[in-house]
Amino acid sequence: MPHGNHDVLIIGGGVAGLVLALEVADRRPVTLLRPASDDLGASRWAQGGIAAVLSPSDDIDAHIQDTLVAGDGLCDEAAVRFTVEQGPAAIEWLLDLGVPFTRDTNPAADYPYHLTREGGHGARRIIHAADATGRAVMDTLKARVAAHPTIWVRDDLTAIGLLQDDAGRCRGARCLDGKGTRVDLPAHDTVLATGGASGLYRHTTSPQPASGEGMLMAAELGATLMNLEFQQFHPTCLHDPEGAPFLISEAVRGEGGHLLNVHGERFMPAIDARAELAPRDVVARAIDAEMQRTASEHVFLDVRHLGEAAIREHFPTIHRHCARRGIDIAEAPIPVVPAAHYSCGGVATDRHGATDVDHLYAVGEVACTGLHGANRMASNSLLECLVFARSCAAALRDATRAPLPPRPTISVVAEAPPAALEAWRERMRALMSARVAIVRPDSGLDQAADELAELYQEVREAVEHGQPGARLSSLWQALRLARLTVASARARRESRGLHYNPDRQHHADRHPGPSRIHLGALD
Ligand code: SIN
């Protein structure tokens, strides 16, 4: 189907996009746009696992309750129940596909696969493939997708925007090929599975995360964006200024790892009764405060007491990576620092991934389903990808198709100079990291708004100069998303979950609920 119309067009090749493709392709042909390299995005780098009620001693209400507590009063309870209830069937589906989850070697275990624990969870309910769950799930899904006769994978195009008809419906995507030639892909239904917006920040847990491009593409068509102010910082990224970003899974704390300050003292028990297994917002904030208090660039995560055999068995990837970077984690504590990890906000969707733009859907981190509220609980993200990709596929299987617009126009576009693009992106990331990170007082948010507005004017001139290429389009989308994020943060006149503003009380008396914003807020 090289130049024709497309039936279901999926933009993004992480777990959500691949699951959706597999679940819909038996009924409708799928075109899947994914980057040529798996290193992009977040799915492949997920270490910990997938949360679901699998052990007979666990129960659905307990998982729901833990999620609501972590979400700090902002979860959509119906979305939480829906996700948690669908979890066990989604895991069965992955097991049927052959994902090599780690088995429990204890003959007395009440579930055949090993279940670990992470922050916020009151029970062991994280199924995993050692400490490289994302890679194991991705490899299995990719092999299935490659073998599927009605899934056409394209890694030669980059989506830079969406197509819209006169009735406001989404009608496919505008893309560029490697030479900068514009190629429009008209489609009956378009699904964004483009990932989150951690790339708005300087230090992240995956090497090349998305920067909210998909969120902005949806907003350009009029879609509502929700809860953008809730950007999650994972408490424990390896502190390795010379190396690539590398996550140290929360499962390390789940299996008994301790956080120590630079003087070798544990500090979490004094802050929260759940100590190292408090929800992520609490732990990241505590680490940030401890780093300030001790004027240090990191804290330590200590697993020495677990013993080398257990460390190698549970965390082979982490052990190997740290060894390559000169740290034997069985002998020395691991220097760690919080880093941008996950966007709890995104394109507002319903239970089937439908946005408020007809024929446009969003699944995975790009979407905001209401599950995470003000703070996502560990390992609920792959769960959400699975559950919502499957429910979106169920809706798409029976969707009616609208007529498509005429065939694509093809034109060649120009790119701004790479040095200018890099400098602009770096400015944006530096100020988001300095002013809109773990602690964000009013003055910093005001400054961020002013500085981003200046940067916006500079980049806008380049955008209006001609047809922007892939890198300029991505920056332009990221920059506008950064501005919307700051606008959402300034509008939230309280501290809640991941949004901690020392000038605002924790939990305003009148509950403002989730935030909603449109692109028009930048006018
Ligand atoms: C981790 O392994 O700590 C990451 C898993 C997640 O973000 O839920």
Return residue spans where pLDDT drops below 50 for at least 5 consecutive residues.
none
What is the straight-line distance between the termini? Answer: 40 Å
Q: What CATH architecture of the largest domain would you give?
A: 3-Layer(bba) Sandwich
Structural class by sheet pairing and helices: alpha/beta
User: Could you give the count of β-strands?
Assistant: 18
Q: Might you state the CATH topology name of the largest domain?
A: FAD/NAD(P)-binding domain
Domains counted in the coordinates: how many? 3
Coarse shape: globular
Radius of gyration, CA atoms, in whole angstroms: 22 Å
Under CATH, the homologous superfamily of the largest domain reads FAD/NAD(P)-binding domain
Description of the structure:
This protein has 523 residues and is of the alpha/beta class. It has 3 domains: 6-230 and 344-397, FAD/NAD(P)-binding domain; 233-340, Alpha-Beta Complex (Flavocytochrome C3, Chain A, domain 1), CATH 3.90.700; 414-516, Fumarate reductase/succinate dehydrogenase flavoprotein-like, C-terminal domain (Methane Monooxygenase Hydroxylase, Chain G, domain 1), CATH 1.20.58.100. The protein contains 13 helices and 18 strands. The chain has helices at 15-24, 60-70, 77-97, 133-147, 213-220, 251-254, 280-293, 308-314, 316-324, 380-397, 418-435, 442-465, 470-491, and strands at residues 6-11, 30-33, 50-51, 115-116, 126-127, 151-154, 157-164, 170-177, 182-192, 225-226, 231-238, 258-260, 299-302, 334-343, 346-348, 360-362, 367-368, 516-517. β1, α1 (15-24) and β2 form a beta-alpha-beta unit. The two termini are 40 Å apart. The structure holds succinic acid (SIN). Residues 46-48, 247, 249-251, 342, 378-379, 381 line the site of succinic acid (SIN). Residues 46-48, 247, 249-251, 342, 378-379, 381 line the site of succinic acid.
